[in-house]
Amino acid sequence: MKCIIETKRLYLRELKQDDLNDLHSIFSDSKSMKHYPKPFTLQESGEWIDRNVKNYAEFGFGLWGVILKEHNKLIGDCGITMREINGVMEPEIGYHINRNYVNRGYATEAAQACRNYAFEVLKLQKIYSHTIKKNAASVKVAVKNGMKLIDEIKDKVNGKIKIYAITLDEYMTKHVNRTMY
Length: 181
Hints:
The protein is an alpha+beta fold. The protein is about 30% helix and about 35% strand.
């Protein structure tokens, strides 16, 4: 399976059903899934992979497996998905990192690489992050990704949702000397 993105410490590549056990170790963990209605069953984790494989074919992107180079181990997923934001389907950066690997900057490193890919390869004009208000870790990653809070909405399932975004123009202003892919 080819690498989509490479960072200093990570590879991001398409998920496959062979990743089910590693991914399910995250999705079945109640602490890792505390911002979801409930942890996933093994079947739901498999369906998650299937949805992303479908997204790769339909959109050319999805959530990719996050592989720690040092151990060649899948430690989560991160990528770009299409999500309904204020009634419109918009590109969003999302991620899940195994709780044994949090607070090491992996989520930020992967999310920033996905932001760069969104603007430099996919030529998107704007990218979002959508998180529940009480998910402080995701808020930090969005801010570190150069995003600004643009809206707060109420959600029937999750309560208050914070929506962050960064435009291509904002990205280019901050990364004017960046070499494009």
